[in-house]
Amino acid sequence: MMSKVLKSPSKYVQGPGVLGEFDQYLQGMGRRLLVIISRSGVQRICPTLETCFAGKDYQLHYEIFSGECSQSQIDRLTAAAAGQQSTAVVGIGGGKILDTAKAVAHETGLPVVIVPTVASTDSPCSSLSVIYRDSGEFERYLFLDACPDMVLVDTAVIAKAPVSLLVAGMGDAMATWFEARACRASGSNNQTGGKPTRAATGLAAMCWEYLRRDGLRAKQAVEAGACTEAVETIVEVNTYLSSVGFESGGLAAAHAIQKGFTFIPELHDLYHGCKVAFCTLAQLVMEDAPRTEVEEVLDFCCQVGLPVCFADMGWPDIDHGLLCLAAEKACVPGATIHHMPFPVTPDMVYNALLAADAMGRAWHRREERT
Q1: The model's pTM
Q2: Do 195 and 5 touch, CB atoms closer than 8 A?
Q3: What is the Cα Rg of the chain in Å?
Q4: Region 46-71: what's the mean pLDDT?
Q5: Other residues' Cβ atoms within 10 Å of the Cβ of residue 301
């Protein structure tokens, strides 16, 4: 029997204001920090860091992230870490910055600290970086030896980010349960190369449970500028439960189809989690899931503002050639779509996408009548 494997960060810290306590959690990481951050992040985050580290024996060297987690950027930042004799890598920002920081730490052998400023994807806690081409298309997964040494999540910062980012994170987290369930049904490996533990599958199930309970309330709170317990819950769901749940529970069709969507230029600017939410519907179509379950997903998506059809994604006039290409890319050898408990072909994916789109449009018409 193959071993079961669960991976998680060494330390997870969450709460309002924890960024101002950053230095308290850096034991064993040295004092020369390479900080990968966006230009806007410098304006928003650096004053807090400068106050936190004022008068303390730390050196922070900032490197501006340029937009894609690509090999060229990883190489540039790896050279910067060597040039600065850095003792740790810190990634502050969204998913692509965080994946880049993890990849740079992997290349340099340095510890890595992940500081998400949004709760828009399930990447922060994983031992995985998604590498793209400089032009934005998916290139490959980079499987890392370990999860981050620390993930620090300041919910006061995240609550100030656009609510659309929190909602996108819910879309990414929603897929966690349905993909982990498929992996367990098929006996497939998780993203660590082992079998899912019951703990990992349980964490995945908790994602969907808490999204249904607190997702809408968290969205409403952030829209009002509040950081409530519902926000704390959904940030933990998006950031920790979904990260550990997808990596140790396993991925299946939803994320594979989303990778195919990276070959559709019209969808490049759409948040990852929004695409994953719609791709989850397509997975449910392929599974011939019960109507009540599909309607529960449709209802949740519409409540919080996740797309349920191509028009919602800004692509009302579908290019069927591009959709076929996306379906083909979703089914390449080694793709996680082959973790489904039945064989999947590009034709099945293409038809599932058309059917999911039709269901979403019908659901909108139903909502308009009520």
Answers
A1: 0.92
A2: yes
A3: 20
A4: 94
A5: 25
